[in-house]
Known about the structure:
The chain is α/β, with parallel strands linked by helices.
Amino acid sequence: MQRTVEEGRGPVRYGPPAPEPGLPVVPELSAVLAAAAGRTDPEPPGGGPALRAAAAGYWQRRGLHADAECVAAASGAQPLLFALMAAVGGDVLLPRPCPAWWVPQVTMLGRTAYHVPTPAECGGVPDPFALLETVRRVRDEGGDPRLLLLCVPDDPTATVAPPELVHEVCEAAVSEGLHLVSDETWGDTLHRPQETVFLSPAEMFPGRVTVLADLAGAYTPASWPAAVARCPLTGPGAALRARALDLLTAIGAVVPGPVAEAATYALGEPGPVAARIRTAAALHARVAAAAHHAVLASGALARPPHAGRHLYADLGPLRAGLAARGVTDSMDLEEYLSARLDSLVPGGHRFGDEMSALRVRIATAPLLGSTPEQRLESLTAADPLELPHVARALSTFVRAFDELR
């Protein structure tokens, strides 16, 4: 990832990838893919019956009514969201900060993206009053807002918005006639699932919300691109899905056959996959908590991470120490910390924050070890923080922040 201001380069080609799990693939999942390696035909646009039925079952087990006819699948979340946004039409509202790839997609469609500030307690959803004000202002200026994007278990902040706030935001959006797309990629990575309440917007307003999930969040490697969406079980929802399938067909965003077999298996949540999801979430929770403590101890700020494999830090209180090192904006901060920690630490400008804000997203996978063997050892250890390679990585992390005081 390089600077976005040289040679006309833009954030589309140089945006940061989603935080990786940093763990070997579940052997049983690899076996399914290997067994399907001889399959030469791709899935049909939107996914075949088996894959769509598996996705419907996944949502039904979470209390969200679905059937195969309301599901669409594609080769990753990016083309799937692209098709959904094109199908809905109009301008797009999204929280600030938000996933790095959202705004470039809106721009590629020739639409306008309007950021709405998030409340103090979490990211992923806009402040409901700010949302209403933004919608009215945009319409007064001749805009056509039709779609709100949400990320309740959030990238980049790793927070989970409380149900009451999600309801207020959804209620405000529905009152203004907006359709909602809820990106729930990180819904199965909750650090403390018994304590954290994650309620999908589709449970509150099932007829106005489309749910999107990238399987790379918890189920399959990012190198096996597959994502699924659940459209509303209504006439307008069926029309939305049909338009999205036309667009997926046009851009050829079909799931490769062997990947579809593995995704179908994973969405059934067999024992080995379910166990890996639980243990991986617990591992990243331990490491994220230690990283969060180090960030706060340095005098920087960060909301406690509750999901995912990352945290979002605000180094504004350390501005003086950073300025002495030539770091004055988030692009400088990205380069400084990436070099200091020897891993990618994207700045907040990638996620829609102001360049002057000294914010970064920090991934936890680099703290698990540098080899597959070390990372697997971290996964199976009773206390991963006591492993020498994890302790060394955390020590380097702590020093990088302590020296900025």
